[in-house]
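hiii so my PI (J.) wants the whole complex modelled not just the main chain, which honestly fair. so below is everything: two entries, each one labled with what it is. i double checked the lines twice but i was tired so who knows lol
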Amino acid sequence: MNTFPYHDLLIFAKTAFQAIGCNDTDAQTAANVLLAADLSGVDSHGLARLSGYVRLFKKNRINTTPHIRIIHESPSTATVDADGALGLVSAPKAMEIAIHKANTAGTGWVAVKHSNHFGIAGYHAAMALPHDMIGIAMTNASPLVAPTFSLSRMLGTNPMAFAIPAASEPPFIADFATTTAANGKLEILQRKNQLAPSGWIQDAQGANSNNPNELASGGALLPLGSDREHGSHKGYCLGAVVDIFSAVLSGANYGPWVPPFVAFLDPPNNPVGEGIGHFFGAMRVDAFRPKEEFLQHMDNWIQTFRNASPIHPNQPVQIPGDAERFAKNERLEHGIPLVPKVVDDLKQLSEELGLNFPG
Amino acid sequence: MNTFPYHDLLIFAKTAFQAIGCNDTDAQTAANVLLAADLSGVDSHGLARLSGYVRLFKKNRINTTPHIRIIHESPSTATVDADGALGLVSAPKAMEIAIHKANTAGTGWVAVKHSNHFGIAGYHAAMALPHDMIGIAMTNASPLVAPTFSLSRMLGTNPMAFAIPAASEPPFIADFATTTAANGKLEILQRKNQLAPSGWIQDAQGANSNNPNELASGGALLPLGSDREHGSHKGYCLGAVVDIFSAVLSGANYGPWVPPFVAFLDPPNNPVGEGIGHFFGAMRVDAFRPKEEFLQHMDNWIQTFRNASPIHPNQPVQIPGDAERFAKNERLEHGIPLVPKVVDDLKQLSEELGLNFPG
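here's the output for the full assembly
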């Protein structure tokens, strides 16, 4: 596996987005968001997806010159029509609106319709941190998940992210799919020809399966909790809330109508809304209590949980965001590793777009 | 098991709250919230807890004549000092403030400190529904849950609830602990002398346990997801977010400092805040899109999910809130069943307080 300097890959991604029509600012934003995934170790959501975005553009399913605008608002809320934009571009714009609303109203909440895949949710939530705000980001996605007792795939992996600032400690950043395992974890097992643990997947008849390729044969991912006895109805609730906040509030497609990310699958021909939906929140901590008090207590919260007695001395209790921060420090210094399949894919994309892939 | 008419039990609970000093209005509110749990089939959070509240009052840990007040606010937020109130009283007051804020700001968000156990979260979230708002309620609780990799109990079962209105369909009401199993489920197994499923509990060494009494020997409940491979770090994130929103935003105790509900255990003697904390939200749906559009699409969402192909024809896919609504209809008609242990406990309480237990 080769590694590549972060800045080389960032420039490459930016030029790719420019090549499909993004202006300089949007291309830079999209590249920043995309590479944030590679930097954080969430390899499934970074450069591995770049050619997927380009294929959607070529099918006229992404608009790289969108007129992103507020279509409905109140002092603390806005609904944004992303006009078919890359989610990598519309999501940071929507989060900026949420932050702007929070500046005056204390909190800001933005629902987005007619968008596309927005990369990693944690990037958007973390935009609130420099403003001493708590950030929240969520998105719906194409249906791969069967609710409890369901044979049908009705929900996406529908991630939610929460970013919470601290004083001297690194921030708390939780970013997770509302399923037992994210689809990216299945892709890793597929590449390695390994079986999946029980409790991640059901087959086309609704029985437990260990085949990481089961989704290609009508299977489904399971909500967080795996089965009813272990709380899968709670994971189903979480995925449903993300779907409703992202799409029923905004006017996007929801549930089984969410268009697929892959260009070779057509969107449903009876849409109930426009594109996919996101939901963002920003809460000023000093809208609740003096800022310094909040930040000091967050330091104490983080230190207390980090120092909880571990079961195994060599496996300490983690604070959400630790793993991604370690990966980022490591990859900024030593480069971003890309598997050969992704490198080949990016080289082919470079040829198509008339670019040079670095290295 | 005997059953009792709802209204008899409601009046009994109200007189009990009056007997410990609540005024007429607060006693009625507390009784309404408490009995809502029994009506919904969440027996662990209803009358079974009444004597627990009274014991906390007798230890001067509940203030039945509180001065509940806003101590910090912005257009869309408020922080409430519950002054040691019953959570059954402070939570509906805080939710009313959230709804009031949402009327003008589009959304309202209220953090509460110095409170006590607030009954079922879903009751408070559902207060938003008649206002065509989405309601959110969460609370922290005394530490029974070990984060992923932790030997120590650091978090409560920290429930979250979401109530979402629809047009002609009953509302979507999700209310769940952020653990694999709620503590009430262990209590049921204890009474029946049955083993718990694997994945619910760890023992004092951090190993999986099937003993429903394990918490008495230093064991812990597990976050939703059960173990790292099945996403327990996500349940840990959810429980942590509930803890931080409820207590670090409000100035209540968090993590291992949350005071226990049971009167025979003293609160930690080095508190980091006051009492336990809650967090509430109300979002006007017409702050995002025209109300009728939202409600019609929620009907479609609910009908679509309810009609998803089931794995077993006799076990249809449920909408969050279905089970509680069925229980409520059944129990309003046929009475509320109480196990003999709870009846004995309530009879003893009646004698102590000089009341008559019905039946």
